[in-house]
Amino acid sequence: MKIALAQINYHIGNFTSNRDKIISHIEKAKKANVDLVVFSELAISGYPPRDFLEFNDFVKQCNKSAEEIANNCNGIAAIVGLPTFNPNEKGKPLYNSAAFLKDGKIESLTHKTLLPNYDIFDEYRYFEPNNTFEVIAFNGKKIALTICEDLWNVQDNPLYTINPMDELVEQKPDLIINIAASPYNYHQTKIRKEVLKRNAEKYRLPLFYVNHIGAQTELLFDGGSLVMNPKGEIVEELKYFEEDFQIFDLEEIENTTDKTLTEDLSETASIYKALVMGVRNYFEKLGFKKAILGLSGGIDSAVTAAIAAEALGSENVYNVLLPSRFSSGHSVDDSLELVKNYGMPHDIIEIEDAFNTFENTLKPYFKDLPFNVAEENLQARTRGVILMALSNKFGYILLNTSNKSEAAVGYGTLYGDMNGGLSVIGDAYKTQVFELARYINRNGEMIPENIITKPPSAELRPDQKDSDSLPDYDILDVILFQYIEERKGPKEIIAMGYNEKLVNRILKLVNTNEYKRYQTPPILRISTKAFGMGRRMPIVAKYLS
Amino acid sequence: MKIALAQINYHIGNFTSNRDKIISHIEKAKKANVDLVVFSELAISGYPPRDFLEFNDFVKQCNKSAEEIANNCNGIAAIVGLPTFNPNEKGKPLYNSAAFLKDGKIESLTHKTLLPNYDIFDEYRYFEPNNTFEVIAFNGKKIALTICEDLWNVQDNPLYTINPMDELVEQKPDLIINIAASPYNYHQTKIRKEVLKRNAEKYRLPLFYVNHIGAQTELLFDGGSLVMNPKGEIVEELKYFEEDFQIFDLEEIENTTDKTLTEDLSETASIYKALVMGVRNYFEKLGFKKAILGLSGGIDSAVTAAIAAEALGSENVYNVLLPSRFSSGHSVDDSLELVKNYGMPHDIIEIEDAFNTFENTLKPYFKDLPFNVAEENLQARTRGVILMALSNKFGYILLNTSNKSEAAVGYGTLYGDMNGGLSVIGDAYKTQVFELARYINRNGEMIPENIITKPPSAELRPDQKDSDSLPDYDILDVILFQYIEERKGPKEIIAMGYNEKLVNRILKLVNTNEYKRYQTPPILRISTKAFGMGRRMPIVAKYLS
Predict the structure, then answer these.
(1) Which of A313, A461, B91, B504 could link B128 by a cystine bridge, Cβ 3.0 to 4.6 Å?
(2) pLDDT value of residue B257
(3) pLDDT confidence of A260, banded at 50, 70, 90?
(4) Please, what's the b/e burial string for B492-530 (b: 16 or more CB within 10 A of its CB; e: otherwise)?
(5) Same domain, yes or no, for A9 and A81?
(6) pLDDT band at A256 (very low <50, low <70, confident <90, very high)
(7) Please, are residues B52 and B19 in contact by the beta-carbon 8 Å criterion?
């Protein structure tokens, strides 16, 4: 039996485009005499459709698409994910389903049992869990068809009390197929392979796994669909961060040994690829071509510009330098070198006039109160206004250049440098931003060395340095990681050897700045715990604050 | 048996304050010879604690508080809600529990079975559902103890496949106690009473219900704890929008007949009270006293100012008038009349200089492109910068003045009039804002009549009116309500008799402006579907857009 895996970049709610992509891959599979072609979880709607699922109209359109796709399944079978209505009187209104298409119709539906409802996942918001189990008989073989999380309950302290494969294995299946929507983070590829390996080994079955590829706003799907033999060895991996389509012969799987993977990306390389895809897909799927961003002379905006140039083409990244009386000379020079290295368009717009006018306008009300955060923010907001004016005038999307460290402790100005349609590096700690810069320069200096080596500064008052008020990023980032990604409390972090006062101060900064992060743009997610939809914190609260 | 209901305003994560409030009510109950005092769901942590629940440190502190509270339970019993660790190897790590405190210790734990996971609820994100059922024997009576949603599966097409009371009733309980965290919306009071009535009637048992009161950022808890007799008649209601504590004699409940409620608030009156509480608690719990807002001369900022004055005291609401070349004369006059009526502080700050400076700064880059949305937004953002500068300088919280109609269709400027720490009327459609204004003027003109009767305008270009580009709000708001609250698709709305082109245009505006709403402040929730945590939409998507 010939099985094809189709790893496709879907567009949420774009029924026409998703359907056409699926049908064109079915046609391609037919030409290669494939028996069964497999698409990913909720392929027809795109993943995650979120609250569109609460619209009956949306779900009906998904089902209509499935029928149109089924019309093309003659002489071939296909598995494709979509939401379906729960026909029972009791329970949630929908199932997360895999349709088995054959002979021009929807032959059967298999529903998802384990519904992830943590971090960025909200599946129990919409779906009733499945509780009946049946393999699919096809061409003399029995397929154990599962959907993503259904294979993930193999950890210690399992999150769910049942295990769908334990039920299905009673019916003596010949292979496992898993259709997935497993988003990228820089640990996920390894974990995902380990989980799949445990399943193949435990049930001694070949395993066919199809994931999404492409960005859906903040969620980045890296692909990496694969086939494993019953020993849990990888027979073949599909591409990462690209669409792919490959055909396998079931009978040959058992005799194929462990494949030496051609490309094993470093963590930083994979983050870079993920972010480039994230920017590119955000613009493509929204129908925009050009980005604008403010180039400060610091490393954050430099790395953001570099990623945008790779994603959109240098000519489509408009860099605006917005120096003030507090900007150091090298800030402009370094930025000019960067835009020259990439050949990106740029302008230099002094903010002095606008800043002065605001100071004069506000003088009668500020009275003689000393220069403080109000004036610092005023500079950042003046820049924000200019960038947004250009963005509005020319139809460019403003890219946000904040990093995760500063977003965590609230070192950013709401409606100023926190502006943007999309945050590119907002899930990368400052130390990771440095690693990205080094990676970008791996074949030669694209980001000027001085941008990487000079001490970080917001340049909002004379001789300001980040280190005036924050510990070294090496220390700050570890504390933040323990708190944010690892959900360690203050006692646990202090027990790791960090200064008690410092830890308490940092955690308090994180929690009291929740109100700022509530209003930030979507952040491309590369970690196990990004700010945004996967981290839901009260604003008015008193914990550690 | 004497049972007391304690309806308290908790503060999320403020373990000391929550614990002390609970203990002081236990002491009060002791003095009145109460046998059992009942507190609400997750009282110890405050509701909703959201992802604080992922911190073991947080859950441990809750359990420590429970033990401290139990120490005070001698000669009295108490029921109090908190998260507890799931001791089983499998399943989610926590339970949503009700602790039964007696004889100085935690006598038993009852766990929640039905975990709401829709709209603003995320309980399956954290909690394992309970699946064992046991009544609590106390003073010769058997208590069926349930937690909020546990009583809610009595609708047609029930959301859950089991019903905890159907299990508990087998053990012949004498009364039902339900501890809840049921947030306000302007339909909720009626629905809540109906649901409780169905339970009392179905199981022929007296019912004691304790809800939260107070605002937790956007979520508004209205209280309305109550006691029902076995006929489903209300014996007593606790106060709405206020803390309350009342004592009942179980033996008398059966013979008490339906109470004539002293206060039956109109929909608009309840919305007004809810919003006032929302503003007041937001400031109190964050430790702020003073608000700032921009007064445009329009109805939205006028109603926002009126609500803030009621919540914080007139002297704590600083109104800034920010006229431009496009502002009509009456805008300033009407605003001045409003601040005079309330005795609120105000300033008039012309934005002309700052706007001109921005225009001059941008002229070389805008070239000769015509005046468009860029210049309109520039005015709104100039105002935003001035308001935020004053907010930063004086430590006032900026109140956002947007309404739900404009937030829905994207008629607002990001980083301009969409700024603020809290959106006061962002869940009220424009037609509801008019009703609020009429309500505020019920005893005399506080909001100048001209503000209510003049045609709405953003005044960002000459002679602009909302009606230039939008249908009448009477029509717009109905279409929006059908789409947002009722989740009707375009075909269904058109079938109600609305113009096809108009409906499609409005729904497209709603969906393509999702990116703006992603960055708005938290919005006090008064409807069944508010923008914010309860409505989760993809940004990059193609449905109806």
Answers:
(1) B91
(2) 76
(3) low
(4) bbbeeebeeebbeebbebbbbbbbbbbbbbbbbbbbbbb
(5) yes
(6) confident
(7) no
Tell me which residues of chain B have a pLDDT lower than 50: none
Residue A183: φ, ψ to 5°: -70, 155
Q: Are residues B225 and B308 in the same domain?
A: no
Look-up of token digits 């392979």: A193
Distances (CA, A) of A477 to A221, A403, A411, B233, B421: 25, 11, 14, 58, 27
What is the CB neighbour count within 10 angstroms for residue B198?
15
B358, A354: Cβ pair inside 8 Å? yes
- The single-letter code of the amino acid at B55 is F
Mean pLDDT of chain A: 96
Domain assignment present for residue A160? The answer is yes
A234 lies in the same domain as A274: no
For residue A509, tell me if it sits in a domain.
no
Q: Which chain A residue shows the shortest CA-CA distance from B491?
A: A57
| Contact (Cβ atoms closer than 8 angstroms) between residue B332 and residue B294 | no
pLDDT band for A261, please (50, 70, 90 cuts). Answer: low
Rounded Cα gap, residues B376 and A253, in angstroms: 63
Specify the pLDDT at position B378: 96
Chain A residues within an 8 Å CB radius of B419? 414-415
B163 and B293 assigned to the same domain:
no
What pLDDT sits at residue A263?
63
Residue B487 in domain = no
Which domain covers residue A252, as residue numbers? 2-256
Q: How confident is the model at residue A262 (pLDDT cuts 50, 70, 90)?
A: low
DSSP SS3 for B315: helix
Answer yes or no: do B363 and B246 share one domain: no
Mutate: best of A126, A356, A415, partner B, most B CBs <10 A = A415
Q: How many CB atoms lie within 10 A of CB A60?
A: 13
- Residue A112 annotated as catalytic: yes
CA atoms of B24 and B18, how far apart (whole Å): 10
How many domains would you assign to chain B?
Answer: 2
Please identify, among B248, B264, B280, the residue that sits at the C-terminal boundary of a domain.
Answer: B264
CB-based burial, B8-41: b 16+ in 10 Å, e otherwise: bbbbbbbbeebbebbbebbeebbeeebbbbbbbb
**Residue B543 domain flag:** no
Lowest mean pLDDT among A48-52, A248-252, B458-462, B539-543: B458-462
Do B329 and B452 share a domain, yes or no? yes
Instruction: List, for residues A275-312, the tens digit of each pLDDT value.
Output: 999 999 999 999 999 999 999 999 999 999 999 999 99
- Tokens (6 digits) for A408: 């965590």
The distance of A383 to chain B (nearest Cα, Å) reads: 11
Residues of B in contact with A392 (CB under 8 A): 372-374, 377
Residues A129 and A227 occupy one common structural domain: yes
Residue of B62, B73, B148, B237 with catalytic role = B148
SS3 B215: strand
**pLDDT at B258 (0 to 100):** 74
For A94-138, how does the pLDDT look when each residue is reduced to its tens digit (9 = 90+)? 999 999 999 999 999 999 999 999 999 999 999 999 999 999 999
Give residues with Cβ within 8 angstroms of A111, minimum separation 6: A84, A95, A96, A97, A98, A128, A129, A130, A147
Q: Could you tell me if the ipTM is greater than 0.85?
A: yes
- Is pLDDT of A466 > 90? no
